Amino acid sequence: MSQRTDTARGAGAWDDMLKAALLPNQAVRIVREESDGGLTLAVPTRKPPLLRGLLSWLVRVPKERLTILDPLGAGIWRACNGHLTVEDLVVRFARHYRLSFHESRVAVTEYVSSLLKRSLLAVDVSPSEA
Q1: Taking the model in full, what pTM does it have?
Q2: Are the C-beta atoms of 127 and 19 separated by less than 8 Å?
């Protein structure tokens, strides 16, 4: 059951992205859980090829990169369990914060995009139909 209007439908508009399921990166670990619901997450880093050779003794690359999520972001990250699609997240977010589907879609997809860029999430574009 979809709560969006026909303006969001159409070939290549949003459908493929909205049907994708999101999973947490299995390499991410929770460093700290804040009392307000925020999270501090650690993501393993990789050495660039240039720094694997002779330069590795000169330039140290940290083993992990920390990312701090506010309670709102932590809620979105926790909801990405592989069972919910992006559309499900958008609808939940819209209901909880009393937004329209389109307002929620913009907020959630922008935030999910930033989590993907930081390697905190992975995308399953063909989730199993339950």
Answers
A1: 0.75
A2: yes
